[in-house]
Amino acid sequence: MKITDVRTKMVAVPFARFGEFRPVTMWYMTRHASIHCITYIDTDEGISGVGTQGDQHTIMNLIRPQLIGKDPFNIEKIENEELGGPGLGGRWRLISTDTMAAIDGALWDIIGKSCNKPLYKLWGGKVNDPIHVRYWLDCQSPEKQVEEAQRAFARGWTAFKVKLGTDPDTDLERVKALREALGDKVELCFDINGGYPLNVAINTLKKMAKYNPAAVEDPVACIWPYDAGALENMADIRKITGIPIEAHSHGPNCEEFVMALVNKRAADTLHLNISFVGSTWECRRLCAIAEAGGLTVTGQSTASELGPRNALLLHLYTAERTFRGTNDNSTHFLEPPSGDIIKNEFRVVNGTLQAPDGPGLGVEIDEEKVAKYHDLYLSSEKYRKHEPGLGRKNSHLWF
Question: Going from the N-terminus, what domains does the chain have, and what CATH number goes with each?
Fold first, then answer.
């Protein structure tokens, strides 16, 4: 089998919740749609694979010439030698991790379809089944967060990832209001996106502790390896507050970062997304390090995955034993009146999902929807750009 062509198409899929179009808002940014480059990789045996996310220019001008004529089964060789992937000790410069992940997903889709097996069966079978997921709740006022969380809870969601970060007082109001509204049995994880300096993080998380957060993700900034001192800060926060810390891994060559998390006892959980590390195999390498160091692993969501990327993640979550925690999920952003680009869209049932059973990724692209969202991408500037988020109050508290 040889690769014969690589094709791409840009789409904009508007975000929606509970029957109405609504943007996704954080303290630092507002997004109205999931912007994706859909990548199709064709072969001489009539099998095509599909991946999403990534940069269209890079895929068509840098990656496409390298892929044509290659055997898609040589996925490790393609990613590490032909494209300069994560195993080359820092030489990955021209290709972003989410672009590499788009190629990775399409190649695995081809491999699974050729073998007539779902990917999880090629990766060892189901270990985590069903897959427990948490509702991705953006940064709103405490009242609006409670309202949305209660509606989600009524539909069967039992765990939530909640965005914070505007200011410590309002963040504490959000935590308190959600715990009181949802009760003690609901799992609440809070994501600060590295927004607190150390002293604010310690003081604020100590006050949050009585509301029993399942974890706090990235309470202080940590852009590895440029801010390595943040690992000591996270270790101090973890020790002083007693709250489990979830650390988000990003960028190529993350093995050293995960080893440092373990050695410095800076986190309880490694938070992983193929988009941020570049490939499925890289995720599994990081999982092995995390497991050896006593960390659990959870799946991260960018709040914008479309069907093919969600499928790839679900196959990984169910086949990799270290994903023992509750994983992020944002499929609810693509419910009517919006919609995914696949025919059988994912719907969470009682807080769980399952990996598809079809060959490869196990999803079928709806080309009519692709055409619709491609036209929307071309016609509406609103969906192609990011806008300011909620911002921050009392900026003197932060830096």
Answer: 3-116+370-378 (3.30.390.10), 121-365 (3.20.20.120)
Question: Cα 185 from chain centroid?
Answer: 25
d(CA 31, CA 126): 34
Instruction: Count CA atoms within 13 Å of residue 286 on its CB side.
Output: 36
Whole-number Cα distances in Å, 393 to 169, 198, 222, 250: 10, 18, 22, 28
CA–CA dist 277, 291 (Å, integer) = 17
Q: Give, to the nearest 10 degrees, the angle between helix 307-319 and helix 97-115.
A: 70
pLDDT tens digit sequence for 297-350: 999 999 989 999 999 999 999 999 999 999 999 999 999 999 999 999 999 999
Residue 228's alpha-carbon distances to 249, 310, 398, in angstroms, are 13, 31, 19
Quote the tokens at residue 296: 């659990």
pLDDT tens, 339-385?
999 999 999 999 999 999 999 999 999 999 999 999 999 998 888 88
pLDDT at 227 over 80: no
Average pLDDT, stretch 128-137?
A: 97
Side-chain-facing half-sphere of 186: CA atoms under 13 Å: 29
* Enclosing H/E stretch for 180: helix 168-182
Asked if residue 134 lies in contact with residue 328, where contact means CB atoms within 8 angstroms, the answer is: yes
Give the pLDDT score at 170: 95
pTM over 0.90: yes
Half-sphere exposure for 105 (CA within 13 Å, toward CB): 35
